[in-house]
Amino acid sequence: MQNFSTTPPSPTPTTTLPPSTIELCEGSGTTRHNWVISIRDKLEQAKQDDRTSSGKSCIYKVPRYLHRDDKKLYLPQTVSLGPYHYGQEQTSMECHKWRAVNKVLERTMLDIVVFLDAMVELEEKARACYEGTITLNSNMFTLMLVRDGCFVLELLTGCQNGFSQLGYEPNDPVFGTRGSFFPLQRDMILLENQLPLFVLSRLLELQLGKHYQTGLVVNLVVRFFEPLMPTAVTFARDISSEPSADELNYLHCVDVFRGSLLLPNSKPMCRWPMRSPVRNNILHQLIPSATELRAAKVQFRSRRTGLFWDIKFNDGCLDIPTLVIHDGTKYLFSNLIAFEQCHVESSNSITSYCIFMNNLIDSAEVVSYFEKCGIIEHTLGSHSEVVDMFNQLCQGVIVEISDIYLYPLFTEVSDFYHSKWPTTIEMEKQFATLRERYFYSPWAYLSFFAAIILLVLTASQTYFAAYDYYH
Fold it and tell me: 173 to each of 93, 96, 181, 236, 252, how far by Cα in Å?
């Protein structure tokens, strides 16, 4: 007979694991020790970011709330500059950048090491200009500054003095006279596609030597982007001759272009970051639309001036400088607004102007009226595209009322509007709507009077037919 033991088997000895090796989540493979190390690494990275930035950022990634439905407004399509979109351009444009560097070395008879060493000295300062952490190592970052900087300077100098003097052929695909610079100008005005201005200044100083003059880069930038000016009257703005126009006061091409749009004595004071923000939907209530203002007997006139933002209101008349709208205007204003939204030390001048125009323009009929008055000149497909452009520019924008340079004008116009009798305004609004919808051309008037005559003749015929029947 087989005997079976009734003694229970001794339990298998268990080993207590230290807390540092216990998995945070079963099957994750992450221990508490590794988890704490990763957190400390992130804290150390944040400390380094804080030391490198120290409030000196001036080239930003556009916030998501401004992206709207069209991200192409902020993304380069032809050429990428700087670290944000590094390596995302076409191979052909990469080749042209190296061609530009080679031309610079041939003209100056300097070794590439001279330019690289100069950028190594500026590396820490240049990195601090960009928001967030730049993953490029030191060699890649300094080489990027030399390559992209020489490419930009070749374009700026060539447009000023002629590309033939720089050694390029007339039929060169990029540095020539036959090509269009609009795709390059559009990409070079994007906020995320910028190089610090002191980098361009240092590279140009190495090229020109003793012939270099302070403020030369500023003038080159202004003249290069002059075709994008949204003004009817164009003139060369030599802003480097102004007392406050030292290159150290400008940050990059976007800042220089914005400064060329505004007079030095008209730049509002820096805004305070602790003020409570106000969204555009509240600002929309501060001034009526052009349709409502016309109903209140407000007149609109155009002003031929290069200062598109210099709007006046006197004795019930709004004098608005002519605004020229082209295919690049949306890119231009979008990135200028993004810069004003991101940079604490910037005013809201361009933003408040766009809000003002968006409030006035509430329909395609208003655009047509402004076009007849000479207030707007545009080359877009339709008047509705102008309305959509201003609506998209102002979506999600947050501003402080006291920072808007047009706020006194808002108050003046609003007081004039509300001083009218409400009944008169309502009646005039109806008549204005009728005029804009049904009497927008002489043919519309002729059609209306023809319909009236036909109605009178029909009524007369009916009357005489009934008269003959009863008698």
Answer: 10, 9, 11, 27, 26
Q: Model confidence over 370-382: pLDDT tens digits?
A: 999 999 999 998 9
What ranges do the domains of the chain cover?
64-261, 278-422, 441-471
Residue 161, judged by CB atoms within 10 A of its CB (0-12, 13-18, 19+), counts as exposed
Q: Which tens digits make up the pLDDT trace of 65-90?
A: 888 667 789 999 999 999 999 877 66
Per the CB < 8 A criterion, the answer to whether 189 and 229 are in contact is: no
The SS3 assignment for 99 reads helix
State if pTM tops 0.90. no
What one-character-per-residue DSSP string does 260-305 give? Answer: HHS-GGGPPPPPPTTSPPEEHHHHTTSS--HHHHHHTT-EEEEE--
Q: In sequence order, which residues have a C-beta less than 8 Å from that of residue 289 and are 6 or more positions away?
A: 359, 360, 361, 362, 366
On whether the CB atoms of residues 338 and 322 are closer than 8 A, the answer is no
The residues near 382 (Cβ < 8 Å, ≥ 6 apart) are 364
